[in-house]
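Bug #77: duplicate submission created two jobs. Keeping one. Sequence:
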Amino acid sequence: MSDTHRWLLTRDFGFMWWSQVLSQVAEGVSKLALLWFVYAVTGSPLKTTVIGLLQTLPPILFGPFIGVLVDRFPKKTILITSDVARGLLIGLIPCLVPIEHFTVESLYVLTFLFGMATAVFVPTLSSAVPFMVARPQFTAANALLQSTTSLGIIIGPAVSGLGIAFSGSQDVLCVNALTYFASAACLLPIRLRATEQAPDSSAGWRPFIRHLLEGLRYAFLTHRTLLILIVLASIYTFGSGAFTTLFPVFGRQLLGLGPVEVGYLWSWLGVGLLLSSIGLIWLSAWDLHKRLLAIAVSCALAGLAVVGLTWTDSVGVASAYVVCIGIGLGTWTPIAWGIIQEVAPPGMVGRVMAVYTAMATATSMLGMSAFGWVAESFGSITSVLGIGGVMGVLAWGSAWFGGRIRTVGVTEGGNRS
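Kept job's structure:
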């Protein structure tokens, strides 16, 4: 048990980690199975792409409001409820309702509600970390959580593809619901520290709006560190969202790969994310300046690797580049989340994290659209070079941010020592 605690930091975080392993594998399974199921029902590629949009909209539209709820209500309850809701929406409803009775509208509603549950879950998860581990372990905890995303990328689609081939997408979604329920069950034993405090649980719209405005003011006006972080996060998702979305297009047009080969190449991105997560566990004790320099170096490496994809037609070399890209992309989020957890007061983390997520998601959609247009108008090579340039800008911005932190320091918004 002591070895488990050493690697998973604390007993409660260990339960959280195992819950996330199940949740991320379930998400990896459901992404492919849901798209396949929707296409089977609608027969329309265009209507199928709407599914991705509907899952992305909730954090943009409701992010700041969700942040208030996260800070006002018990985080453990929100996490369990979100997992159960996702299991019901993604599995049981398609399982109980015959496929011939499904309409496009009902699928869109279910997908949007699933996106809402996920939009609530993510900021709650990140804001719960400070109540399970000590401050020097924040980055390590975030890296461990990101490792579950890597496992989901590596395992989920493969399991989903096999399930679809042997049983069909509807059955895969039905069985996948059990994974979300198991994830919720893993959260039952966790205990968040007694220091967790809601800002003010007064009922009514006025306190709610006041807390909403407090969160927006703190994120954009009160703390310059958070504002810079949000700007850099927007640059990060502008490039990373475009790369991950257009990855199949790049694989086909630059390397001449088919869907199976693109899937194998995609798995190497998960390997890179996993390697970065392991590395960040060891870097957790570094001061903020050094962690930001680690981001700068890894993003510069990722930018060069992205550009390198335009210079090779070897799948082996491309796989190595994709691993480097995964390392670069995987370094950002654990450190950025750790900065928010260190800087924001305990009762403000949920709101700041929700604002951060909303801005990052919005710029991700913008990047998908912009570089998709570039790829269609000027070719994939131009689009890939542009994404590499964005990663270079992020590397420069992170290095500048690290230098600023070393010069002027960073002041916590809360009273934690």
